[in-house]
């Protein structure tokens, strides 16, 4: 079965703290992985994506993610978060219907 | 270039009413899809289309119909609204079916009373 799981439901950090959000996937075939961000009241925006090649992927706004095949993981990281990073973050993988299979999301709250 | 647009932004329906959520894209994308977002559930696929005239069911299709008469438009119809359909609905499009980036619309928040 295809699935994407995110470990943390809600993460609370202070500004300048480092961030790591966990994501694990479970499916075979071609691995295409994505991280999307949803700011309050807004639609989903792509942060970064992995299709192949360098397993360390850099995205927008200082985010990066590392694809570790042996661990079936694609964790999102940022060395120093800002208050403006407060949002909900979704990990997703490509499904067999061309859709995205989403994790349940992680809410990030950054305290100023 | 407007990307993916959705109307309306908000809608309140009574149980049993029907309505159509509109979705349009101006990027000449072949693949379009509808998701619903519920708290703690992430986004789940309702229906999708790989091109004009071709649609198929996703994970949660019951109570919804779609059609794709043009490349640009992909409306979602609620036949007889139920409270369980209270959700936020997102339309998305991508160049083709497969591992391409999907672009999302701003969403429609639907409440069924």
Give the total of beta strands of chain B: 11
The SSE order of chain A reads: EEEEEEEEEEEE
Please report the number of helical segments of chain A.
Answer: 0
Shape of chain A: globular
Structural class of chain B: mainly beta
Number of strands of chain A: 12
In angstroms, what is the radius of gyration of chain A? 13 Å
Largest pleated sheet of chain B? 7 strands, mixed
Shape of chain B: globular
Low-confidence stretches of chain B: none
Average pLDDT over all residues of chain A: 92
Report, as a whole number of angstroms, the end-to-end distance of chain B: 36 Å
SSE order of chain B, one letter for each helix or strand = EEEEEEEEEEE
Overall mean pLDDT of chain B? 94
Share of residues in helices of chain A: under 10%
What is the C-alpha radius of gyration of chain B, as a whole number of Å?
Answer: 13 Å
The structure class of chain A reads mainly beta
What's the helix count of chain B? 0
**Beta-strand content of chain B:** over 45%
DSSP helix fraction of chain B? under 10%
What can you tell me about this protein's structure?
The complex is a heterodimer of chains A (112) and B (113). Chain A has 112 residues and is mainly β. Chain A has no helices and 12 strands. Chain A has strands spanning 3-6, 10-14, 19-21, 23-26, 33-38, 44-50, 56-58, 64-68, 73-78, 87-94, 100-102, 106-111. In chain A, a hairpin with a 4-residue loop joins β8 and β9. The model of chain B has no long low-confidence stretch (mean pLDDT 94). In chain B, the strands form 2 sheets. In chain B, strands 2, 4, 5, 6, 9, 10 and 11 form a 7-stranded mixed sheet that branches. A 4-stranded antiparallel sheet of chain B has the order 1-3-8-7, with no helix packed on it. Chain A binds chain B through residues 9, 30, 32, 34, 36, 42-46, 49, 51, 90, 94-95, 97-100, 102-105, and chain B through 31, 33, 35, 40-45, 48, 50, 56, 58, 90, 92, 94, 96-99, 101-102, 104-107.
